[in-house]
Sequence to fold (133 residues):
Amino acid sequence: MPNKKQTTTTTAAAKDYSRFAKLLNEKKARILKDVTQMAKEHLGNSQRESSGDLSTYSIHMADMGTDAAERETMLSLASSEQKLIQKVNHALERINQGTYGVCEICSGKIPDERLEALPEATICIKCMKKFDF
Fold:
């Protein structure tokens, strides 16, 4: 029969995990919303539509270069957001596996303060500094 202290500790840990799972799911929803909005506004349109110029006149070469640079920036941002979603999903998997909050390098505890600020963190600050992440 488990003692009362073990049951309380397990319940507290589960509560903390659900709080972090909520933070992670909210973060994921925000990122997906941002990426969807970016795609609608910038990536789904032709250069002419993106610039708001629907006339039959040709677009100036400098404008085409600016449009191309903006599209490249949007693609880069979308790629960064996709990587962040992968990190969030990994953290959610770690919650399900019971390894959330444990450093993947040293197996030490990642402080709650760090997880509050960066809930997808998988490495403690000490290891991050030690290995230059």
Observations:
- The chain is about 70% helix and 0% strand.
- Residues 59 and 133 are 44 Å apart (CA to CA).
- Residues 1-12 have pLDDT under 50 and may be disordered.
- The radius of gyration is 22 Å.
